[in-house]
Every structure is written in C-alpha cells, then in structure tokens.
C-alpha cells in the first residue's frame, strides 16, 4: 500500500503490542496499528515510532508471547522517525508539508517525534533531501525499516524499485 493512499482511518485498526528495547537495555511496549489479515498475520497500518524493521503496508507474523513481529510481505514503504528537541513548530510543519509534497505522510506524532512513511518509489535521495532541510542541532532522524540491528541494509527495496 503506497504511503500516499489514505489508510489512516483509525476505526478499522486493532493494536498489537511490540517490545522495544533501548540502547541502554530498557524495554517498553509500543502499540502498533494493524488490521488482522489471517491467523497471526497483520497488515501494519501506520509505521511505528520506535519498533524497528517494519513500516505501514507490511504484512507481519505476530508472536504475541514474545511481543515480536517478522515481516511476511513488504508493503513497499520506508518508515522514518524524526526525533527533535527545541525545534520551532513551523520547522516541523514545513517538514510534514515537504514530506507530503513528495508522496509521504505523517503516521504519528509526539512532542519530540514525527513518524513519516514514504513509498520507496520516491527514492532515498528525495527522502534524504527532505530530511536534510532540517536544522542540524536538535534533530536526529533514522530509517525504521532500512537497516538491520547490525546496521546492514535490509535491501528489500531492490525487488520493488
């Protein structure tokens, strides 16, 4: 499901809990918006803000006991988490507008976080150019489903571009 399609009608969502671990070893659960598609399989509706490896449009197999997910089928979207502190609101609004102009969308927002989803077909250069317009101080962004835990590219997009 391309990011520009409106799949954000929350009335059709369920929520599953996925375990997130910080670099310091602390754990917490993130509730991720999904729609059940079959027994134990879910369509991710909104890219998560903290859980790594999945994006909106992916079909995942959910392990409820371990609160983990494995991608069964990629949806063709790139998730990006933008963490910010002390950034003027107009800069964040501009980021969201610029993301939408290249085909992305906002999938979530907290006081210091914006979660964006882009169709991979917009290309990494366009995504990085949009994010590159942000100030260097007070902003960190990262891809949510492009690299594995060792920092190696997952390369799932090579079959879709």
Written overview of the protein:
Strand 4 and strand 5 form a beta hairpin. It contains 2 helices and 9 strands. The mean pLDDT is 91. By secondary structure, the protein is mainly β.
- SS strand fraction: 35-45%
| Overall average residue pLDDT | 91
**Largest sheet, described in full?**
5 strands, antiparallel
Helix content: 10-25%
Shape: globular
Instruction: List the helices and strands in order.
Output: EEEEEEHEEHE
Count, helices:
2
Strands ordered across the widest β-sheet: 1-2-3-4-5
Low-confidence residue ranges:
none
Protein structure class: mainly beta
What is the end-to-end distance? 14 Å
Question: Could you list some keywords that capture this structure?
Answer:
four-stranded antiparallel β-sheet, five-stranded antiparallel β-sheet, single chain, 161 residues, globular, mainly beta, 38% strand
Would you kindly provide a brief summary of this structure?
With 161 residues, the chain is mostly beta strands.
Strand-helix topology:
Layout: E1 14-21, E2 27-38, E3 41-44, E4 59-63, E5 68-73, E6 77-84, H1 89-101, E7 105-110, E8 113-119, H2 124-132, E9 139-143
């Amino acid at each position: 499901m391309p990011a520009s399609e409106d799949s954000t009608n929350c009335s059709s969502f369920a929520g599953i809990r996925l375990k997130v671990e910080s670099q310091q070893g602390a754990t917490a659960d993130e509730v991720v918006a999904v729609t059940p598609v079959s027994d134990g399989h879910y369509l991710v509706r909104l890219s998560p803000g903290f859980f790594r490896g999945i994006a909106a449009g992916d079909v995942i197999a959910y392990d409820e006991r371990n609160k983990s997910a494995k991608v069964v089928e990629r949806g063709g979207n790139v998730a990006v988490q933008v963490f910010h502190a002390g950034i003027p609101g107009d800069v964040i609004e501009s980021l969201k507008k610029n993301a939408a102009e290249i085909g992305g969308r906002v999938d979530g927002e907290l006081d210091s976080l914006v979660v964006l989803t882009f169709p991979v077909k917009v290309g990494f250069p366009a995504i990085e150019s949009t994010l590159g317009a942000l100030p260097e101080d007070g902003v960190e962004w990262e891809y949510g489903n492009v690299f594995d835990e060792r920092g190696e590219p997952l390369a799932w997009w090579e079959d879709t571009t």
